[in-house]
Structures are given as structure tokens and as C-alpha cells.
Design goal:
single chain; 242 residues; alpha+beta; three-stranded antiparallel sheet; three-stranded mixed sheet; globular; disordered N terminus
Length: 242
């Protein structure tokens, strides 16, 4: 008389097979964790992309790692701008924090001149151009990497946060880029392009301007804006593991 295979044990074997099969077929499978905390107590999801580990969310912190508060930049009053570190919420709306994070001027990236930043959680830092380019190269180059980094869906169809057309968006990298927009402080502070653009600082400072990276709804590419960004501009920050 044949023994009946225990159903639970059989299911366990199937699950093991599928796990090892899928792991072998896709060795670069993105691994998500939620273990990074900043000085304010905000927690961040992280994702492994190739050889790098990135935050999968924009920074939200309002203090440096030594506890020093970062001055808030409101559109209702003039701020000193460079060289004073400032952060702000898009359109002065603090509810944007939970989704898009904060926007920071470049002095936050280098609070004591062009030296190591002190806003990233311990064991993390703001990525350099070299590290951004490592990510871009791993994802296939500037012309298509942006689509692999953008979150999917459209705001117009209530399926996402990017406005149409959100060209090429697959988020297959797990970077989960959102269109947090930016703020300018040339004459007075104003917010612009949320839903259409996502902008992130680099720790690299070029000869004349700070370096940043931009994703747009209308294209699958990612661009390096090292000739058009200003120290007084406000952008998002993503951190990368040391």
C-alpha cells in the first residue's frame, strides 16, 4: 500500500524549488529591507541594486547628525539661502513629507564648505557623481535608466504619482523615484514641477555649480544637471550605503 505524501511537506518542497529556481534565474533580484533610521526617528526602506545599496525613499530629516536643527525655508518669508543650510516642504505643505520627503538647498549637502556631509544616517552618505553613474551604467545607460528608476502609474489615472505620460516607467530597479519637484530661491522661494520632475543632489561639486540628477515624466532618460543647478536651489536627497 502506497503512503500518501503529506500535503504540507509537499507544498514546502515546491516552495523550496521555486525559491532556488528563481534565485538562480535572477541573481540580481532586488532585496528590500527597512532598517535605516535618521536622527529624527524616520525609517527608510532600502534596496540593493547591483553592488550598491540605496535608500528607496527620499530623505525627510530636519536635523544634522549632531542634533543641530536645519533652518526651515518658508515661501512666506525671505531666507538667507547660501551659505545657510535650509530645508523646506513643497508649497509649504508638511503633508508632502510622508510621500516625497523634504527638499534641501545645497548647503545641507556640504554644511561646512565642500567637506563630508553630516545629514545622512550613520553608515550612509549622499552619493557622488561616480556613484550615480555606477547606478546608471548598471541600469543600461542614461537613455533608459530613468524609466527603470521611476515608480509606475499616472496621477491622472489615479494609479501613481507621476503626471502623464511617465514614459518608460517600470521601476524594475526598485529605486522607486517619485516626482517631488524642486524649489528655487533666486529672488523668493517658490515650488515647481511636482508630478513632472524628480531632482536629487550629488555630493560632487563641479567647477562652477553643484551637481544633481533629474528624472522627468516625459522621458525614460536620466540627466546630470551640473551646469544649471544653483547652491540656493532645493532638491531631494537620496542616500547610499558606505
Amino acid at each position: 500500500m502506497k503512503k500518501r505524501i503529506n500535503g504540507s511537506f509537499f507544498n514546502y518542497l515546491i516552495m523550496c524549488f521555486l525559491y532556488f529556481f528563481l534565485s538562480g534565474c535572477k541573481k540580481d533580484l532586488n532585496i528590500f529591507t527597512r532598517q535605516v533610521k535618521d536622527i529624527d526617528g524616520n525609517q527608510y526602506t532600502t534596496v540593493t541594486i547591483g553592488t550598491q545599496v540605496w535608500m528607496a525613499e527620499n530623505l525627510k530629516v530636519t536635523k544634522f547628525n549632531d542634533g543641530t536643527p536645519i533652518e526651515y525655508a518658508s515661501s512666506l518669508k525671505s531666507v538667507k539661502g547660501w551659505p545657510i543650510p535650509n530645508y523646506g516642504w513643497y508649497n509649504d505643505d508638511p503633508t508632502s513629507k510622508s510621500v516625497f520627503g523634504a527638499l534641501y538647498n545645497y548647503r545641507v549637502v556640504h554644511p561646512k564648505g565642500l567637506v563630508q556631509n553630516s545629514i545622512a544616517p550613520k553608515g550612509w552618505h549622499i552619493p557622488s557623481d561616480e556613484e550615480w553613474n555606477t547606478l546608471i551604467s548598471y541600469l543600461g545607460g542614461n537613455s533608459i535608466a530613468g524609466g527603470k528608476m521611476k515608480s509606475i502609474g499616472n496621477l491622472d489615472m489615479n494609479t501613481g504619482l507621476w503626471c502623464q505620460p511617465n514614459t518608460g516607467a517600470t521601476n524594475e530597479s526598485g529605486f522607486s523615484a517619485l516626482p517631488g519637484g524642486a524649489m528655487s530661491n533666486l529672488q523668493s522661494i517658490f515650488s515647481y514641477n511636482q508630478g513632472y520632475d524628480g531632482c536629487w543632489w550629488s555630493s560632487t561639486y563641479t567647477q562652477w555649480n553643484p551637481s544633481s540628477y533629474n528624472l522627468q515624466s516625459a522621458t525614460a532618460s536620466i540627466t546630470n544637471e551640473n551646469n544649471s543647478a544653483f547652491n540656493s536651489d532645493f532638491m531631494s536627497i537620496r542616500c547610499i550605503k558606505d
